[in-house]
Every structure is written in C-alpha cells, then in structure tokens.
Structure to design on (66 residues):
C-alpha cells in the first residue's frame, strides 16, 4: 500500500507516540495528500476478495483446486 501511495509506513523501531502524533498530524493537515491516499487506496480495492477466497477454499475442499 505504501508503494501505491495509499499508506505511510513507520518502521517498528522508529515508532513512538511522538512520531505517530507527528505522522497523523501531518496527514490531517494536508487534505490534498489525504485525498490522494484515499484515491490510491480505492485503486487497490478488491471488493470481491472475500468471495474469491471463499471460492478457492471451496474448490480446494472439493479437490478441484487448480
């Protein structure tokens, strides 16, 4: 998601309350960036993901997974 512009990743070793507050504050203060991130996230969306996974599981259970 980060590579697509839909997220900000803070490495575990760098995550502090102050860093989190700074990252969130920066995002909340930049509505254009938030909108771009939302659009990037929407482009990655797979609304049918749960159904696709269920179909694969059912196929595997029947023994006809490809």
């Amino acid at each position: 998601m980060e590579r697509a512009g839909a997220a900000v990743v803070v490495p575990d070793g760098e995550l502090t309350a102050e860093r989190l507050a700074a990252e969130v504050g920066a995002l909340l203060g930049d509505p254009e960036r938030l909108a771009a991130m939302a659009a990037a996230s929407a482009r990655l969306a797979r609304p049918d993901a749960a159904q696709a996974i269920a179909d694969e599981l059912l196929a595997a259970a029947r023994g006809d997974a490809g």
Summary: Residues 31-44 form the longest helix (14 residues). The two ends are 28 Å apart (CA to CA).
